[in-house]
Amino acid sequence: SAAAPRPWRLFGAMCLLRLPRITQSLEKEEEEMAALMEQIELEKSHYSDHEIRKLEEEEELRRRKESAYDDEAPGKTVIMAQDLEDKWEQKLLRFEAAPRITDADKNNNRTSLNRRLDSNLMLLVKQKIGNQELWLLPQVEWQPGETLRSTAERAMAMFLGDHIQAKILGNAPYGIYKYKFPRAIRTEDNVGAKVFFFKAFLQSNDLSQAELKEDYLWVAKDELGDYLKSEYLKKVNRFLLD
Amino acid sequence: LCSFLFSSWLLQTVPFRGSHWQTSLLAFRASLPMRAQPKKKKKVDVKREQAQKDRMKKKIKKLEKAAPEMIPIEDFITPLKYSDSNRVRSLPPLSFEETERRVLLMKKWSLFKQKQDKAEKKAIQTLTEAQQEALKELRLESEELYQAAIRRDEGLFPFERDGPNYTPPLPDYDPPEGKCVDITKVYTQ
Prior knowledge:
Chain B: This is Large ribosomal subunit protein mL40. The structure holds 2 protein chains of 2 kinds. Chain A has helices at about 30-45, 50-65, 80-95, 105, 150-160, 230-240, and strands spanning about 10-20, 120-130, 130-135, 140, 165-170, 175-180, 190-200, 215-220. Chain A is an alpha+beta fold. In chain A, strands 1, 2, 3, 4, 5, 6, 7 and 8 form an 8-stranded mixed β-sheet that branches. By secondary structure, chain B is mainly alpha-helical. In chain B, about 50% of the residues lie in helices and about 0% in strands. Chain B has helices at about 1-15, 30, 40-65, 95-140, 145-150. In chain B, helix 1 (about 1-15) runs antiparallel to helix 3 and helix 4 runs antiparallel to helix 5. Classes of the chains: A alpha+beta, B mainly alpha. The interface between A and B is large, with 52 and 43 residues.
């Protein structure tokens, strides 16, 4: 039985998330608790082999200093535990890890993927809706014959090219944004549009192969307010975990 | 063991190829050198072999019925060298202020964790609500799309991802060479 054509136009939108690459910094309570746990663990522990060796060697050194003469010939070199510790300390200081706050952070370059490595970044593109240019999650109109998930995949491929590797989390949409067209273009069978959002995790690390045609940005959840309209933002925030 | 005897028994009766004693497989009885006395050994052989096989099978059953040996859990057994008295750490006892500070910190921590847990549960709740709303609207639109949406995604699990580290990876880092020798003891029952 043929259903009457609905007056809502359907869109599929993709929320592509770049997952964090470094751990978030600890809160004040977490730091205090971590220090306390370390202290308690130290108090409840026993001496390790290395520590016993260190204590014994310190005892011997002390005894040798107090007694005026040397028991063994001074030419004999014995590696002390303290020397080993110093050597390890030196080795650690010579290693330089990559900085947690990258250059992109300092320049606030919002098109780069290396910014804010400790939080989720999502893709925003500038699209023309009606006669306005808006910042939106990439969306494309649904065509009969495809599922909404493939609409969202098409939207992603349109803006980032075919070689993008993303894991889409399931067949079901995560959120919906419904809006009615302004009275000027509203007709009987074209009342408004429903945008269904899908979520995906970005798997590939660099997007140098992607052909980004339009203006794009990678923003974190707290920066979304700078770009999205309030109603749209409210619906999008509901399905985004911090 | 019994299968070996069985196969050796079989080998004796099957003629080997290229032997000058027989011309065809069917004529093997006639070509073997025959004595005047008919051989009665075959029945006794068969009985003896049968008895041997039964004894073997009984022995195997007895061994299998015996309970398997317990595998010791190495984590639960403290090696003796760590219960020496000189190993005990000697630290000054905690002051009153220190114990007070610890107790207050534990209370603050439990409150912090409770708030964190509540926030997480609320976030999950809004997530499921948003999804249910989206599915409801989709159902209103078209039943076919709704059915496609609630179908299970087979390719999603198993999902693997390397967790975040403390610092981002260095671009040209050459890790030092090293060999890892696995010395875990493997027990078989």
